[in-house]
UniProtKB/TrEMBL annotation:
Regions that span the bilayer: 15-33, 45-70, 76-96
Protein name: YlaH-like protein
Keywords, sorted A to Z: Membrane, Transmembrane, Transmembrane helix
Pfam families per UniProt: YlaH
C-alpha cells in the first residue's frame, strides 16, 4: 500500500531514501513513546545513530531485497505506523490515569 504510493510519487530512484526517512522518523517516535528514559545528550545521540543504522539494515532486508527478488516488500512502514498509534494510545491513557490520581 505505502510502497505503491511511494513508487508512483517518487519513482524507483528515490525509493530507498524515502523509505529510510519515513521509517527512521516512525522508529524514533516509537522509541520515544515506548522505551525512552531520561538519559544524557551524548547517550541519546548514540541511541539515535544506532537507530539509524538499524533502520538502514531493515530497509535493505524488508524493502529492497524482496523487490529485487520480484516479490512484494514486507509492510515495515505500515507496521511502524500501527506501533506508533498503539504506543500513543497507551501513553495518552497513562497520562489520563496519572492525572486522575
Amino acid at each position: 500500500m505505502f510502497f505503491d504510493f511511494v513508487m508512483n510519487q517518487f519513482g524507483e530512484e528515490h525509493l530507498f531514501t524515502v523509505f529510510f526517512i519515513v521509517n527512521y522518523i516512525l522508529a524514533a517516535i516509537a522509541y520515544k513513546l515506548g522505551f525512552a528514559r531520561k538519559i544524557s545528550i551524548l547517550k541519546s545521540i548514540i541511541v539515535y545513530i544506532l537507530l539509524a543504522i538499524g533502520v538502514f539494515l531493515l530497509n535493505i532486508m524488508f524493502i529492497v531485497l524482496p523487490t529485487v527478488w520480484a516479490r512484494s516488500p514486507l509492510p515495515m512502514t505500515e507496521s511502524l505506523v500501527i506501533i506508533c498509534l498503539i504506543l500513543g494510545i497507551y501513553r495518552f491513557r497513562l497520562y489520563l490515569q496519572r492525572k486522575s490520581n
